[in-house]
Write a structure and sequence with these properties.
330 residues; nine-stranded mixed β-sheet; disordered N terminus; binds 3-deoxy-alpha-D-manno-oct-2-ulopyranosonic acid
């Protein structure tokens, strides 16, 4: 919020020196994310989304949660302090519990499956509710990647083959109920913590590990302070490109179509880049001295899914939607 007002002051200063009215009228689209500038989603938005809307709006990204703390982005958009974010199903589930279905372990199967689900009619009531209740439009689905368990211990000390092997392991997970539930469902002892604090927590040993896709492990340099990755693939994770409905309503139809297409194009570019990185990075991480190995996936899948059955989360899922999601997969 402080930075937001500093930004506004800067903008005011700039306005005083401007002579062109059109430049003054261009809305500034502030985007806040915990991700770094070199994250593939950030790169895709900066190189594809920003330029595509530049004739009528100014895309202004803020990385590493420097504008809004992780998890507060949706409230910031709702209150007019932010125009855009890449939000998660877990964050949306804080307001609309039915979104936990998209945050459930082993539901989404791949990047392609995520796109099919997002574009399917099953998604329409979800999107509508986000618009009506939060004043946010979900424009496209971005691929974050397959989340794996990444620990400080060498494999000789802790060999993570089944959920039982995670008993007592303090696993950092993002701070919301849906995330913490997933951590427990994996068999671990989840600890909530903001993304920007993970590196130091791993370094000092205040947590035993964290879970994120390989491109994030590399981009955030978690490999410097960890020794192993068990490829649990417990969540094929996503973010939605979230855009202020108030700003959207101020655009004309052609501009809205341009924003929509820009979001889809950026999501596609980011998805391809992230998939490529996921493929390449096992070799890189192994070369850095990490043990990267596959656990008993059937044991993890069965255990995680069993935790959701009959849970409060599952009770919030609209009838039949899980079956529809499954039918869009393999
Ligand atoms: C994280 O905090 O572990 C997480 O991966 C959660 C995601 O929803 C997303 O917010 C992501 O962080 C950030 O964009 C940083 O990569």
């Amino acid at each position: 919020i402080m930075l937001a007002s500093t930004g506004m002051l800067a903008l005011l200063g700039a306005t005083l020196h401007l002579t062109s009215a059109s430049a003054q009228d261009k809305p500034v689209i502030r985007m806040s994310t915990p991700a770094s500038e070199t994250d593939q989603r950030s790169i895709a938005l900066a190189t594809v989304f920003g330029p595509a809307i530049s004739s009528f709006a100014t895309y202004q990204p803020h990385y590493n949660s420097s504008l809004v703390p992780q998890g507060s982005e949706l409230e910031a958009i709702a209150s007019g302090d932010l125009e855009m974010s890449i939000t998660s199903a877990q964050e949306l589930a804080n307001f609309l519990p039915e979104f936990s279905i998209f945050a459930t372990g082993y539901v989404h199967q791949s990047a392609e499956h995520q796109v099919k689900v997002f574009n399917d009619a099953l998604m329409a009531p979800f999107k509508q509710k986000v618009e009506d209740e939060l004043g946010v439009k979900l424009l496209a689905v971005m691929y974050l990647g397959k989340r794996h368990v990444n620990l400080r211990f060498p494999r000789s000390e802790k060999n993570v083959m089944t959920p039982a092997d995670l008993a007592g392991v303090n696993l950092r997970m993002p701070g919301s109920d849906a995330w913490q539930f997933l951590g427990r469902a994996l068999g671990a002892n989840p600890t909530p913590m903001a993304f920007t604090e993970i590196y130091t927590a791993l370094q000092t040993g205040s947590v035993d590990g964290q879970d994120n896709p390989l491109p994030t492990v590399v981009d955030a340099k978690f490999y410097e302070v960890t020794k192993q990755i068990s490829l649990t693939a417990h969540l094929v994770d996503l973010n939605y490109i979230a855009f202020s409905k108030a700003v959207w309503d101020g655009l004309d139809a052609e501009q809205q179509a341009t924003v929509q297409k820009a979001a889809e194009d950026a999501a596609e570019a980011g998805r391809q880049a992230q998939l490529k990185k996921e493929d390449e990075l096992v070799a890189f991480l192994t070369a850095q001295g990490l043990d990267v190995y596959e656990p008993d996936l059937q044991a993890f899948r069965t255990h995680v899914q069993a935790q959701y059955v009959g849970s409060d989360f599952a009770k919030a899922w609209p009838e039949g939607v899980l079956e529809q999601i499954n039918a869009l997969g393999n």
